[in-house]
Specification:
Length: 424
């Protein structure tokens, strides 16, 4: 395998710098389209909003929110909304850019967008969260619309917040607009299968990679960082296909059982107690040891920059399937490539969520809803095709799967950019 240039970025770089480095690595493979590559390095538009709300005690609190459209050459902006105490503008810019790449890599007719509010949602009551969500939606409303920008869930947001967003937008425009948001409750035009779609897609793409290297799923070990929407769904789908989930972590701690952890049982424990810590059918391990656990599959499903130059050497997995966005730094990518670990990059591994969001959007437009079986079947087909296209580029050009995914995606985005031209 020809090696790509070593990263000049240390682990100190933020998500936006990491994204820029990923783009730099693809430019040599873009041919004539390389002249347009600067397009990928700039967000199309950025909105910073002040979100003031009354707290339950009557005082007023202000939160900073963002909505970024990274690129809309191929269609409306699409991407989730994150609530987290460490959200920053540059993080949301990177998350929006990864949506551009992801939507193009999978062939969805969308550009890339993302939103976020810097808030610790664990410190707000449900009614404070509802006021925050509604005010944020109104503030970013100038960018939203079913043919302009369609939010969805991300870290610490779920069907509940999507229902509030859909309702707020609809009240502001004076009619019900289900297609302005995806990941909604089924009763409001949500899609069957969306809740587990990202985790299911992690499984589908990891299984496609496993086939390529002759690794069976049955009996294989799986380690998962993050047991939220993505992590717990991935754990259940791997378990349902005969794999053994041996270690899981969340912010409360990490637990390990060589004989296997039943993710359904662990989920019941987490719902009751608030975290994996103290789970009685597994032993506690330090969170920092999670990535060193011997395993066939490692699924980072928490936040960015978890696999770094500091810990990549200790990873023993054969396949890493990135449930999270941006979990691996470029320096860690180089180390993993040298170790022969197959890294299925975020932009295809976690694309199951936005793929079923696309199905939801299409169903909302048609007011005609598909069965869950139909959705899962179509999801698998879309992701398998995307994986196959990326694998071919990876083999032909002898580059990492991440750079191969960027070749596929950047070519589509920049072709659209070039065809559209520059002037209104
Ligand atoms: N939801 C979706 O459809 C999609 C999500 N993603 C990406 O997947 C990742 C997870 O998102 P999602 O599952 O939706 O978010 P959730 O909020 O549902 O879950 C996040 C999980 O990560 C845990 N976590 C946070 N920090 C750490 C840490 N340092 N170590 C271990 N665990 C940690 C949280 O723990 P705790 O609950 O204890 O706070 C929680 O279990 C994000 O990168 C997101 O962008 C990508 C595509 C689609
Ligand atoms: O479902 C969507 O529209 C986007 C989900 C998302 O934010 C992501 O894929 O990172």
């Amino acid at each position: 395998m020809r090696s790509e240039p070593l990263s000049y970025l240390g682990d100190g770089a933020g998500p936006w710098e990491i994204y820029l480095e990923q783009v730099n690595r693809v430019i040599p493979y873009l041919g004539r389209l390389a002249t347009w590559a600067e397009t990928l390095k700039r967000p199309k538009r950025v909105l910073i909003v002040d979100v003031p709300i009354h707290l339950d005690d009557g005082t007023v609190a202000h939160f900073e929110g963002y909505r970024v459209h990274h690129n809309t050459s191929r269609g409306p902006a699409k991407g989730g909304v994150r609530y987290h105490p460490e959200v920053t503008l540059s993080e949301v810019m990177a998350l929006a850019a990864w949506m551009t790449i992801k939507n193009a890599a999978v062939g969805l007719p969308y550009g890339g967008g993302k939103g976020g509010v810097r808030v610790d949602p664990k410190k707000l009551s449900p009614s404070e969260l509802e006021r925050l969500t509604r005010r944020y939606t109104s503030e970013i409303g100038i960018l939203l619309g079913p043919d302009r920008d369609i939010p969805a869930p991300d870290v610490n947001t779920s069907e509940r917040e999507m229902a509030w967003m859909m309702d707020t937008y609809s009240m502001n425009v004076g009619r019900t607009v289900p297609g302005v948001v995806t990941g909604k409750p089924i009763a409001l035009g949500g899609s069957l299968g969306r809740r587990d779609a990202t985790g299911r897609g992690v499984f589908v793409t990891a299984a496609a990679a496993a086939e390529k290297i002759g690794l069976p799923i049955e009996g294989s070990r799986v380690v998962i960082q993050g047991f939220g929407n993505v992590g717990n769904a991935a754990a259940r789908v791997f378990h349902d296909h005969g794999a053994r989930v041996v270690a899981v972590s969340d912010v409360t701690g990490a637990v390990y059982n060589e004989a296997g952890i039943d993710p359904y049982d662990l989920l019941a424990w987490v719902r009751e107690t608030g975290g994996v810590r103290g789970y009685p059918k597994a032993e506690p391990i330090p969170q920092a040891e999670l990535f060193a656990v011997p395993t066939e599959f490692l699924i980072p499903a928490a936040l960015e920059k978890q696999i770094t130059e500091q810990n990549a050497w200790r990873i023993q997995a054969r396949i890493i399937a990135e449930g999270a966005n941006g979990p691996t730094t470029p320096g860690a990518d180089d180390i993993l490539q040298e170790k022969g670990v197959v890294v299925v990059p975020d932009v295809i591994a976690n694309a199951g969520g936005v793929t079923v969001s696309y199905f939801e959007w299409v169903q909302d437009f048609n007011s005609y809803f598909w069965t869950e079986e139909e959705i899962n079947r179509r999801l698998e087909r879309v992701l398998r095709n995307a994986f196959e296209a990326v694998w071919q580029v990876h083999e032909e050009k002898r580059i990492s799967l991440r750079t191969a995914a960027y070749v596929v995606a950047a070519t589509r985005v920049l072709e659209a950019r070039a065809l559209r031209g520059l002037y209104p």
